[in-house]
Amino acid sequence: MLDVATFKIHFDKELSRFLALKNAEVRTYTKSKAIRRIIAHSAAIAQVDGKRVRPYLGYLGYRMAGGVKTKDILRRLVGIELFHLFALIQDDIIDNATHRHGILTVHAFTQERIEKHKHAARTASSQALLAGDLAFVWSQEALLADSASDVYAQVANEFYTMNKGVIIGQMLDVNISHKDTCTVAQIEEKNLLKTARYTFVHPLKIGGRLAGTAHTARLDTFFDRIGTLLGTAYQIHDDMLDIIGSPAKIGKPILGDVAEGQHTYFTHHVFLHGSANDKKKLKNFFGKSLSKKEKEIVQAIFKSSGAINFGRRIAEKKLVQAQAHIQQAVIDTEHKEALFTLVSLLRFRSQ
């Protein structure tokens, strides 16, 4: 049973091998150096400082369902990571983000090279959109390569269920962005689809189906429960790092959620429980690019209003519930230990 760090080493090698093949394949389609550079840059984003949470959960699901062929499963799990690359490229276009994992996003990279073009911004977004589409095709090639396999239909069904959920979750996110208010229920629905199910539940289930063994309803129920708890805590920590994290560690500027007008547990807490002055200030900053001084003001609002401590309490509650659920689960000890380690990593994550 591989721990997270060891898995990442083996997985990154397989990811690099697969992407090297894809970049070589691109050269058989076009002689355009510009197009090759764009595609190569999108592939580079997938290889820079990724946490590999989703493929690792796929691996855990595979092992818990009785899978033993670790080497064979790695390439399949590359498909999960490349779908995530597709989602990140799309997300960066929507948010007009300039950096991802400490390097330029695909549309920012492209625009920098055609800045004198009459329609540079639109052209760059179009090229990034297409690069994302290519990453989506790659993800299917990796994960769903063996269409003759008995488990193909089950894996494909879970994969496409994940696809639909995260896309609709992103649409919900866009729908409530820049609105003056939203409900906790709307935030929870968005987080469930965009993070809990996408990052935790579905990768566990995809891994389970890749094992090709008799898959039990009990195991699926466990994946649903533990994935939702861990995913909720993960998203809360993600939103908190966007407020008080280190830009160098998270690989992008902080307070992007406020600048993009995105509602989180933290913004909702301020709008509901903050002082009148805090509410007014945050509303004025919402959906606007922030200067260094303005970022310091917004950080102070989240801290003084109690939003940071509120978010920490919710995340910790979910992690404690997850620990109890793991302890009670009828699974092998080594699988419990791997999940307990994951809980600990989520509890103390800084990026």
Structural classification: mainly alpha
First-to-last CA distance:
25 Å
Query: Which spans of ≥5 residues are poorly predicted at pLDDT below 50?
Result: none
Strand content: under 5%
Largest sheet: 2 strands, antiparallel
Strand order of the largest sheet: 1-2
Task: Report the C-alpha radius of gyration, rounded.
Answer: 21 Å
Total helices: the number is: 16
Anisotropy-based shape: globular
H-E string: HHHHEEHHHHHHHHHHHH
Determine the mean pLDDT.
Answer: 94
Number of strands: 2
* Percent of residues in helices: over 70%
What can you tell me about this protein's structure?
The protein is mainly alpha-helical and 351 residues long. It is built from 16 helices and 2 strands. Helix 7 packs antiparallel against helix 8. It is globular, with a radius of gyration of 21 Å. The chain starts with a helix and ends with a helix. The mean pLDDT is 94.
